[in-house]
Amino acid sequence: MNTDNEQMNRKYLRAKKRVEKLKGFYWHLTVYIVINTIISVFKIISDANNGSEGLEEALFDFDNYSLWLWWGIGIAFHTYNVFGANLLFMNKDWEEKKIKEYMDEK
Q1: What is the pTM of this model?
Q2: Cα-atom radius of gyration of the chain, to the nearest Å?
């Protein structure tokens, strides 16, 4: 009985750690979207108001979106760190479900 409690405690601690990693990832993703949107909007408005560029040129200027790219690389690494082998839907369970789905088709 004592080993069952210890095993449950270990499972709980692993699950809690996993939830904390997920929570950290979702916060990181939220901050990434909010901050980059604000910065991009301010840069576009600033470029358009300075008169050096029109609105269309400001919208398609890579400098206004470069932070998205560089921070996005960090998000990609964080995503892989959190989800690892279960990244998106490409895991063993997904493969088995797809195989069964295709076998069941007429």
Answers
A1: 0.70
A2: 22
Which residue did the predictor score with more confidence, 9 or 98? 9
70 CB burial (10 A radius; 0-12, 13-18, 19+): exposed
**Residue 20 is encoded by which pair of tokens?**
């904390």
HEC profile for the chain? CHHHHHHHHHHHHHHHHHHHHHHHHHHHHHHHHHHHHHHHHHHHHHHHHHCCCCHHHHHCCHHHCHHHHHHHHHHHHHHHHHHHHHCCCCCHHHHHHHHHHHHHCC
